[in-house]
Amino acid sequence: MKNVLILGATSDMAQAIAKKYAAAGWSLTLAALEKELLEPIASDLAVRSGAEVQTLEFDATDFSIHRKLYDSLPTKPDVVIAAFGYMSDQIEVRSNDEDIRRTIDINFTGMATMLSVVADDFENRGSGAIAAISSVAGDRGRQSNYIYGSAKAGLTVFLAGLRNRLAKKGVHVMTVKPGFARTKMTENLELPAALTASPEQIADAVFQGLEKKRNVVYTLWMWRYIMLIIKHIPEFIFKKMKM
Amino acid sequence: MRKIADWGNYPVIEADVSGFDTTAQLQQKLEQPGDVIAFGNGRSYGDASLQNKILLTRRFNKFLSFNPSTGELCCQAGVLLSEILEVFVPKGWFLPVTPGTKLITIGGAIAADVHGKNHHVDGSFGQHIRSMDVMRNDGTVITCSPSEHAEFFQVTVGGMGLSGIILNATFRLKKIETAYIREESVRAENLDEIMDGFEASNDWTYSVAWIDCLAKGDAMGRSILMRGEHATASDLVEQAHKDSPLIPKNGLQLGIPINFPNFVLNPLSMKAFNFAYYNKTRPGTHKHIVDYNSFFYPLDAINDWNRIYGKRGFTQYQFVIPKEAGREGMRKILKRITESGLGSFLAVLKLFGEQDSFMSFPIAGYTLALDFPISVKAMALFKELDAMVADYGGRLYLAKDSRMDAAMFERTYPNADDFRQAIAMLNEGETKFSSLQSKRIGITS
């Protein structure tokens, strides 16, 4: 039986992804900061599809234990999905050093340290696939969330490099860039329906993307073109825009 | 803050909207004073789940346990009926009661005490609840059942979310052999024929009629009676069905991408639709094997069908009148509706069985449900209809209502007073459960 390790398994996207893998007959290892939140998620997956589920406490910012944590896993995964992330309201905290650091620690450093551990194992085994949730916010710095965006930009580059390193070793790395998503991060916001993906749509994109070995996945196709346009606006115009 | 509405898109309000994953998070939210109401999947039609502060329950949607020998399921209240069907139909289980949409939460099904095509046999959804946990306004959790904290249970089933936030519920699914329904459809030429048809169909588990509310004169009440039983394995004829009897072969999923302009719905277009539907069925009795989705949830196959009514929104007028008053009452009310020319393409008639609940909608009698685009004329018509319904000893369904006044509620729900007092007692403290509807019809202040 194949095993998937989901890091940050309490997010709405991660939960939808877990359901996809459970339904497809995989066993799951769910890791998250608050382990008690994982219990109902695990029982839900077991009732739904009889999936074997293990839960595990995982702190993305406790970098030094990432290797130990991975080494202690009783079942080494075939697929790792990194879905953890952190976004604050930037207007309130853009000059708060603790929040800037937290944003970068979780979205970039924690991803880099943990996935490096996974990469070493997969490289040794000569198989495996990694998917990580980055963001369209990392495609260009915009005044409304450039701190989060720059951490995600770092992640996107990290994943590109990892993909380049591991491609010849039989290990696939996929970058996922959801646009707007209807999740708990955005439940009190009005989002344009046509541009907003549900967690289930994102889960489908991740599951199928990995099957087809996609490199970079925008969960709704429009976003690839929206970001293409945004990326190509000349800086001297872009800096005067409100985005 | 964001804009939010229920299924009828009327009214639309600005509200502070948030969800919760754990009871601890919910407790924290309830510590903040003010009025609050639970919001499931937004399929009540009016303002029953609208308030300045809204608690979304959809994320609280985990299956907690299932006993495959008894069919007993325990799940959190944000689980949709559709999720239960997806998981359990392939295992050979079905919902004990289901309304005409599967896109509602368990919490909503209990709070509105929903009914289905088997009401005359199996009663309402709430009658199948063996136990549930409900969080009160002070953050305490009450485990209640028909025997434990029975009074609290009674005001919560059909209590429109005013006693607390339903956290989880335990109930039994029923065993099925196939995902199909053995359906008979019978064309009835007028109101008398359809009522005879219902009375002759008492032995069927499921019965409902689609009624053409635009047919006038002698043809008034012409309709199609549909009755059904869960098909057994030996009922199936097609090889594809026999091969995997519990995996239904469904039809297409269609979508309505945008709100239709208001002029699209007019007496002519609606008449054309009703006529087409009616003529699909030739006179006499027809037998089919249909998948459960086509039988129970024909409208769920059209995503966002509410958009067909345009930006102004719509309401569904659903009333019940006692069986004794049925024939005469239904004739007069239907006549008034057909005369108005405002009626809808969706009109559903059903004969309820006995029910004696504290606040629930069903009573032994006939219920009719029709959609109306919101308009000044329609609002005036509803006032007239209200008076007739009340005179016949009937009442309106709170889950569909967006406009009834307090006097009508008071007059037609015999336990209105006791319910108001019970809710006032439960709501003592700084956090109160109330909805725009509960204020409008005078249950809460």
- Identify low-pLDDT runs of chain A: none
CATH class label of the domain at 180-403 in chain B? Alpha Beta
The fraction of residues assigned to DSSP E strands of chain A is 15-25%
Radius of gyration of chain A, whole Å? 18 Å
Number of E strands of chain A: 9
Distance between the termini of chain A: 46 Å
Question: In oligomeric terms, what are we looking at?
Answer: heterodimer
Largest interface: A-B, 16 and 19 residues
Structural class of chain B: alpha+beta
Helix count of chain A?
Answer: 9
Strand order across the largest sheet of chain A: 3-2-1-4-5-6-9
Q: Report the sheet with the most strands of chain B, covering strand number, pairing sense and barrel closure.
A: 8 strands, antiparallel
The CATH class assignment of chain A is Alpha Beta
β-strand number of chain B? 22
Q: What structural category characterises the helix and strand content of chain A?
A: alpha/beta
Structurally, the number of domains of chain A stands at 1
Break the fold down into its secondary structure elements and pairings.
The complex is a heterodimer of chains A (243) and B (445).
Chain A: E1 3-7, H1 12-23, E2 27-32, H2 38-49, E3 53-57, H3 66-71, E4 79-82, H4 90-93, H5 97-125, E5 129-133, H6 146-166, E6 172-177, E7 180-181, E8 196-197, H7 199-211, E9 216-218, H8 221-232, H9 235-238
Parallel strand pairs in A: 1-2, 1-4, 2-3, 4-5, 5-6, 6-9, 7-8
Helix pairs in contact in A: 1-2, 1-7, 5-6
Chain B: E1 2-5, E2 12-19, H1 23-31, E3 34-39, E4 53-56, E5 63-67, E6 72-76, H2 81-88, E7 93-94, H3 106-111, H4 119-122, E8 129-135, E9 141-144, H5 150-156, E10 165-172, E11 174-175, E12 180-188, H6 191-199, E13 206-211, E14 223-230, H7 239-243, E15 254-255, H8 267-280, E16 285-291, H9 292-296, E17 302-303, E18 314-322, H10 326-340, E19 347-352, E20 365-373, H11 376-391, E21 395-396, H12 406-412, H13 416-426, E22 431-433, H14 436-440
